[in-house]
């Protein structure tokens, strides 16, 4: 077994609408903003999202998950999943903040309740709540 030197997984999102994306993820999804060294020009925010994992799937598996969460193939090469305490309430809140709901909350074969959204900066989000 390999020894890992990795200390943190950081997903970096580039967006033209920085303020909207920051508000969506910080103020409405509830990610805590942590210290960041400001650049000479432009803006940056680092939001803490709890424990990070990297999930790697084959295209057939991505299709299977898409079919469960949305009913058809919709995801691209990356999708971000957040474990939340209440999928239904979080889905409604994020939709009110401009996210497009692709798949309403539903019980999955993975023993979780999942929903799928298209969020600011073009990211697809899976919200999940363990049963």
From TrEMBL:
Pfam families reported in the protein's UniProt record: Glyoxalase
GO molecular function per UniProt: metal ion binding; methylmalonyl-CoA epimerase activity
InterPro entries: Glyas_Bleomycin-R_OHBP_Dase (IPR029068), Glyas_Fos-R_dOase_dom (IPR004360), MMCE/EMCE_epimerase (IPR051785), VOC_core (IPR037523)
Domain of life: Bacteria
GO biological process: L-methylmalonyl-CoA metabolic process
Keywords associated with the record: Metal-binding
Sequence ranges assigned to domain VOC in this UniProt record: 7-130
Protein biosynthesis is among the record's keywords: no
Name this polypeptide is given: Glyoxalase
Organism the protein comes from: Chania multitudinisentens RB-25
